[in-house]
Structure formats: C-alpha cells, structure tokens
C-alpha cells in the first residue's frame, strides 16, 4: 500500500477552552501527523492558545463559518502537496486514536473515509439521531448507498476528492456533499470510531438549529444535488496515478 502524507485540518471558532487538550492529545498519540489550526475569526483567545503551543495556524481575519474555514484548510493542503486531508473538530469530540484506521482505508483505495459512531453501535433515540436517520434515508433513496453516520464531522478526503472539492462551486463539509461525491463515483468507506462530548463550551446546534439543519440537508440531498454537475472521481484517480 502507498504511504500517504495527510494533513489534519482543525477549524476553530472560540475554542480556547478545549484547543490545548486537542493539540496535546494529537502530539501524544499521533506525533508524526501534521495538523493546522484554522482560526475562524475567533473573538476569544483561540489564536493565543495555538501560538503558545507552537501549533501551525491559518488565521482568518473574519468568521467564515465551518465551510469557509475548512475550504481554507483544503486550499492550504493542496498548495503544500498533501495527499489527503482529515477534517477534525477543535472541541475535543474527535479522538486521535480514530485516525490510523481512516488512513488505512484511504491507503486501500477509498476516496473518502467517514469516522462513524454507528457502524457497529446502535444510535440512541434522540432528536439529533432522528435527524441523522432522515438524512441517511435521503442519501440511500438518491444514491443507493447506506451511510450509518452521515452527519459525522470526522472525514478524510484523498487527493482526487480534494481536487473535486476545490473545483466545484459551493462545496461544504456536510452530508449533502457526501451525496454529491457518491454520484461522482467516489468510493466512500466508513470506519467505527468513538467520540466524546465536547470538552468545553456549548454546541451552536440548538434544538431549533438542529431541525433547520436536518431539513436543509434533506432538501439539498433530495432536490438540489440533482442540478449539480457531476465529476468522475474514478477517472480523476486514474489520471492522478498516470502522472
């Protein structure tokens, strides 16, 4: 299997309370892995925490939201020649121990690897999990593929997936983009991972926001994705190998 050169992209907006723990865990358990903190216009001491720990930082002057912050990180990875990127949360929910199995699937040929909480574990019956089930159903109806954890924010994108992400307008690190990738012949794999509750602060996804989010994703998957121009990641992978 080919060795990969991954970059961990950590979007961070007002995560001063949890960021140091995230960095320490990565350095302890994945010391060989490069990562970059994308400060998304934080108003707290997120940048100061990252600087104090000598972390690599991409400091955005204004808040762009998750999509803008992640895209900035993907552009950085592309410019620096990384083979793949891994989307990783700054709030401590994601665990460094999940990364090796994701990289292994990419080495085996997966274009995208999703860290799933529910590949081998049942979901609880909360409103958020009902929303996850609704989004999974929409993806299954439109692509024939069953994703057990479509709302997971722990995802790996290989080189062809990176190229696709940067070449198609309005891409986001969200479930509807996974639907787009499947229709573009991407090979998507899930691996079982464990996740914690956030280490500090409150999630921006309140009950009302969660409902709006799952409805927006479902509508996008069922309707809007049909109007997007599809790519062929199988062809892009062949071209990449031929270079």
Automatic annotation (TrEMBL):
Coiled coil: none annotated. Keywords: Transferase. SUPFAM superfamilies: Nucleotide-diphospho-sugar transferases (SSF53448). It holds the Pfam family Glycos_transf_2. Residues 8-165 form the Glycosyltransferase 2-like domain. One of its GO terms (molecular function) is transferase activity. This is Putative glycosyl transferase.
């Amino acid at each position: 299997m080919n060795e990969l050169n991954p970059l961990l992209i950590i979007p961070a907006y007002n995560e001063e309370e949890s960021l140091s723990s995230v960095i320490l865990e990565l350095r302890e358990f994945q010391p060989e892995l490069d990562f970059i903190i994308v400060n998304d216009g934080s108003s707290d001491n997120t940048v100061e925490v990252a600087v104090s720990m000598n972390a690599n930082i991409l400091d955005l002057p204004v808040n762009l939201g998750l999509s803008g912050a992640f895209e900035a990180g993907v552009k950085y990875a592309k410019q620096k020649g990384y083979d793949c990127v891994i989307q990783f949360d700054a709030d401590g929910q994601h665990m460094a121990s999940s990364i090796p199995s994701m990289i292994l699937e990419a080495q085996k040929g997966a274009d995208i690897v999703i860290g799933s909480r529910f590949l081998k574990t049942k979901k609880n019956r909360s409103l958020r999990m009902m929303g996850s089930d609704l989004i999974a159903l929409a993806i299954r109806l439109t692509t024939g593929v069953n994703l057990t954890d479509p709302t997971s924010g722990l995802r790996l994108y290989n080189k062809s997936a990176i190229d696709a992400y940067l070449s198609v307008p309005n891409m986001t690190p969200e479930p509807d983009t996974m639907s787009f990738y499947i229709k573009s012949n991407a090979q998507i794999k899930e691996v079982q991972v464990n996740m914690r509750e956030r280490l500090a602060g409150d999630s921006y996804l309140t009950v009302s926001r969660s409902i709006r989010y799952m409805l927006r994703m479902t509508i996008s998957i069922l309707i809007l994705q049909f109007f997007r121009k599809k790519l062929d990641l199988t062809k892009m992978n062949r071209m990449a190998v031929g270079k």
